[in-house]
Amino acid sequence: MKSQVVLLGGFIIAVAGCGSPQPGLAPTHSNAVDSLEATAVPGQLLVGYRSGNVTKLARRARILGHNPTLEIVLVAPNPGDNLEKLKADLASDPSVSFVEENLLFRLPRPTAAIRQFSGGSSRNKPLIGLGGNDPLLEQQWHHPKINTMQAWRVTKGQGVTVAVVDSGVDLGHPDLRSNLLNGTNTLENNNDPRDDNGHGTHVAGIVASIFSNGIGGVGVAPEVKILPIRALGDAGGSAQSVSTAIQWATDHGTAVINLSLGTTKRSKAIASAIRYALAKGVVVVAAMGNSGDQGNPKQYPASEPGVIAVGALDPQDKVTPWSDYGDWAAVAAPGYGIWSTFPTYEVSLTRFAKEHPDALPPEDKIQLNYAALSGTSQAAPIVSGIAALLRAANPQMSPQQVRDKLMKTAKDLGPVGFDPHYGAGMADAVLALQ
Ligand SMILES: [Ca+2]
Predict the structure, then answer these.
(1) Structural domains of the chain sorted by starting position, each given as residue range(s) with its CATH number in brackets
(2) Ligand 1: distance of its center to the CA of 125 in Å?
């Protein structure tokens, strides 16, 4: 997440904007680097509002979008009115539960200011014993670390859905296609979650790339179904698109929601959507953020209560220097040079990699079809995959029980016991299932 991510999205009506730079997806750690200060979509407010009163609200502001389930309305001032005045006016209305700016999220974009990773070597450990014929498997060093293969003796995730709230997914990718459900697009307000960035396709593959199909690598839970939701685009997204995506996923049968995104300012709309998901039994996993070496500003939604916040480890089981830390860290997982699916067509990140071959850190490789990326964005979906295996084996487990189980069975790393960098330690698929 240090990178930036972000979003805005659409409610039922319209919208999607993005504007300036800032918060965003938590992708590849190498991308981050602009200001970490959260910004908002200019001229918009998100209003927590009791549903019956929207008509009344429509007389005071322009309604750009309305999420009746979350009781949140996106508004702009009427022509000639002032945003600050509208905000103050709404804040004093007893039927308004909150008024906030519509936080902007941006996807990470590689920049020339990429830092070299100072950790150990990135030699991947060969994967032994999985029995698959997927050629990238032996580069996927994270599988033996989290004991994916032993966990598969119990389940590969069949019957469980994982929502990837991100930049969308390459819907035609041969290593994902048959695991994709019909998703949605809360950014542009349509039902087409095609990925124009690459981040979401990478995250989806970490969870659910197809096992033993002779191509690529394999996901942690290769028999789950992915619900692809585009809430952030190449140009960004917002608190509105992300909160709506979380609500939509919850109402479409997902068991786990992966949020490899974040911002340094809290959004009550996103917090409300997460509470809604948790209350309906949906497990919410979020990236801790990639700004641990840039002042470690508190990141949201990773630090929202009930969320399983995930930090990133290198191949030596050391937390990466850029992984964010804090008491809300639940577990850590591999997040360095992680191979996964990437769009089969050109996106901005593939273009960038072609034009600036020296700008990426050596462990990151961006090409058509597959890429190796680093970030807490990559660590989070590993844990989402384990959570999905857990839910496949124990459908009745509550989000809190899943979080507790992952923490209790994690391999302790760093200082003995819980600590803010590693959380409870490295998540372990086979121990979690015992
Ligand atoms: Ca495969």
Answers:
(1) 24-105 (3.30.70.80), 137-432 (3.40.50.200)
(2) 18
**Cα(133) to centroid of ligand 1, in Å?**
8
CA of residue 31 to ligand 1 center, whole Å? 27
Catalytic (active-site) positions: 166, 199, 377
Residue 135 CA to chain centroid, in angstroms? 26
Q: Which amino acid is at 116?
A: Q
* 202 Cα: distance to centroid of ligand 1 (angstroms): 13
Q: What are phi and psi of 331, to 5 degrees?
A: -140, 170
Q: What is the pLDDT along the chain (434 residues), one digit of tens a residue?
A: 333 333 222 222 222 222 232 344 444 444 333 456 778 999 999 999 986 778 888 889 999 999 999 999 999 999 999 999 999 999 999 899 999 999 998 765 543 223 333 333 333 344 445 567 899 998 999 999 999 999 999 999 999 999 999 999 999 999 999 999 999 999 999 999 999 999 999 999 999 999 999 999 999 999 999 999 999 988 789 999 999 999 999 999 999 999 999 999 999 999 999 999 999 999 999 999 999 998 999 999 999 999 999 999 999 999 999 999 999 999 999 999 999 999 999 998 888 888 887 777 777 888 889 999 999 999 999 999 999 999 999 999 999 999 999 999 999 999 999 999 999 999 999 999 99
Q: How many angstroms separate the most distant Cα atoms in the chain?
A: 67
29 contacts 52 by C-beta, under 8 angstroms: no
For the chain, the 3-state helix, strand and coil shares in percent, each to the nearest 5, are: 25, 25, 50
Q: Read off the pTM.
A: 0.89
Cis amide prior to 301 (ω within 30 degrees): yes
E runs forming strands in 61-197: 61-67, 72-77, 96-105, 161-166, 184-185
